[in-house]
Amino acid sequence: MFSSLSPDSAPAPPHGPHSPRGRYSVVRPRLHRGHFAFLRAVAQGLSARAMWARYLADAGAFDDGPRMHRMTGWIRAELGAAAARGGDFARARLLRLDLAPPGASPLPSLADFVRAAGLDGFAEAEQLSAYEAAFGPALARQRRRKALLHRQLDAIHTLEAQVAQPVSPADGCEAWLVEAVAARLHRAGLITLGDLVMFMQARGPHWWRPLRGIGARKAHAITVFLRAHADTLGAVPASDPNEPDAIDAVGASTQARAGPAEPVSPWLPLERFTPSADLDGRTGTYRCPRTQCRLAADNDRDAILAWLASKGDGAVDVEGAEGALNATQRAYRKEAERFLLWAVLARGRALSSVTIEDAVAYRDFLLAPPADWCSAHTEPRWSARWRPLAGPLSAASCAYALGVLGNLFAFLGAQGYLSGNPWRAVRAPRTVVTGLDPGRGFTADQWSLLVRVLAALPPTSVNQRLQFALPLLYDTGLRLSELVAATTDDLRQEGLAGQGGTLGWDGWWLQVVGKGGRLREVPLPATLMRQLAEYLMTRCLPGDPRQAGGAALLGGATDLALRVPWANRRTVDPAAPIAASTFHRQIKAFFRGCAQSLAVADPPAARCLERASTHWLRHTHASHALAAGVPVEVVQQNLGHRSLATTTRYVRTEAAARRAAMAHFWAAQSA
């Protein structure tokens, strides 16, 4: 399954006096940290061309063929030999396995599979079950490869500390350069690499001219090697671009790197971002003594995860499983992730070392981020094109971000991880209160269109769920989180006495838990209760909610076996709830479908529907109810607003009256 190298077939060192495409190599075959970094990157599927340019520029021009395979084979053979010398033969065999992603056609993404199989609206667990049934053997191979790859990367990391040696100014030239070149440098009195670097710095681009036996081609190769290790050797002058031989050499290098290569992004999401030891916070400037800290976290990322865990019901999955995070955790993760990336990548500081000046600079950064920090909202977190921002933040969004970071630092301070909170000294940008956006709701005509399209949907279980849920959201103004948490046990039937002791109203109430854990009851119309009875029966539950045994009002799909017959026949619990993310995706897809039907006839309405979400139905409930004469206090109670002022922002009757009065005035003036 996985190719390997036997000791007898270990490749020869990939360096020789001459390289393909006229590139001259002067480097002695010896492992340095660049070899380890290159092997780690290639094993994880990153572009070999880009990684060669980054880590092995001193090894000659890149060749995506025998040369590259000789290099990776030689590195693996050297590591395997090092492990075998220590008696660890199992590790030696593991290191010889080539675990790079296979070149076969990749499996479709889950999203593509869901679209092709018609599983939109199914719960994610159901979609995953069908995906597993379709691609089980291939997924098993992927999981085995991933497990072996993790073990191999651990082995590479362990051996790097034992075998790899940084290129040092005190190293003799013969330690890193081929014997013939080192001998010529020795004759000129250049014994160590430090001597050579100082000689080059003093002489400039033409440093090689006084040296016998060192021409432009060898000089360029030496320069490339030394510049690749400038972090330990110091800067050296570039090759003279006017030398004909240097032009050929540089041209070969440029040609080798000019091909299409996957970008290697430094912007990694929180679950994949691992700063270097000096920037991960273990030695942060404002860290409290370890004996005072009540967190087990040893670095800034783990401290962030502990903070996120405090906002939910349990520990946060370091791999970033979306389903394990609630809405607050996802929003807070985004802000902490952005700031951690900015602190490390833009300021070169650990999060636990940021100053007040850094915090002020970050506020300004959010209001005007560079273009390379931004990407489309739709980029997945695993993509190399993903960025932490989509563009400049509004003043209100920036103020929110600073508030979240203030919460993070207050938590870390209270737990004895940090000694201060710089955000207390940072003023949020000024915001102008504009009220609620009247565009985040549907007009009466748009709502009528949605109702017509809804009624015409095919009779699948996910569509039947939508046909019940959409009117429920419109009639009650519930939040999405309140709806998916509601069960039949939260329903209560009540008869209210009217005037003269007569029965004034006989109806149903739904009890929900809103923001801040506040309980409220929302009245339900009789038509909605009839729809609920029909929907419960499609799930093989009693139509009377009092006999449904606490079933979720919104359940999962019940016809998976009919839609995907080859899927695993997993038993579906008809009373189980649906995840908020699943229903959110379904309703967004429904709105997009409605928008496409209006794209030609009514482009503005189509653009409106493209942006719509479940929360728009809450806005629509409020504005339509108030326009129909429902008292504002009643709407406030339905929505669960703490302040009446929040509800009155939906009132549009005053604006309509002003508009009508002015229209009368304008008509009189023009008469």
Task: Kindly describe this structure.
This protein has helices at 33-43, 48-55, 66-85, 89-96, 110-117, 124-163, 173-176, 179-187, 193-203, 216-228, 230-233, 244-257, 300-309, 327-346, 356-367, 395-414, 444-455, 461-476, 480-485, 526-538, 560-563, 580-598, 603-611, 614-627, 632-639, 644-648, 653-670, and strands spanning 491-497, 503-513, 519-524. It has a three-stranded antiparallel β-sheet. With 671 residues, the chain is mainly alpha-helical. The chain is elongated, with a radius of gyration of 33 Å. Strand 1 and strand 2 form a beta hairpin.
CATH superfamily membership of the largest domain, which one? Answer: Intergrase catalytic core
Identify the CATH class of the largest domain: Mainly Alpha
Class derived from helix and strand content:
mainly alpha
What's the helix-strand series? HHHHHHHHHHHHHHHHHHHEEEHHHHHHHH
Mean pLDDT: 79
Tally the beta strands. Answer: 3
The amount of helix comes to 40-55%
- Strand residue percentage: under 5%
Find the CATH topology of the largest domain: hpI Integrase, Chain A
Strands of the largest sheet, in order across it? 1-2-3
User: Count of DSSP helices?
Assistant: 27
Largest β sheet strand count, sense and barrel closure: 3 strands, antiparallel
Number of domains: 4
Q: Do you know the CATH architecture of the largest domain?
A: Orthogonal Bundle
What's the shape?
elongated
End-to-end Cα distance: 88 Å
**Oligomeric category:** single chain
> Which segments are poorly predicted (pLDDT under 50) over 5 or more consecutive residues?
1-12, 16-23, 241-263, 318-323
- Radius of gyration, whole Å: 33 Å
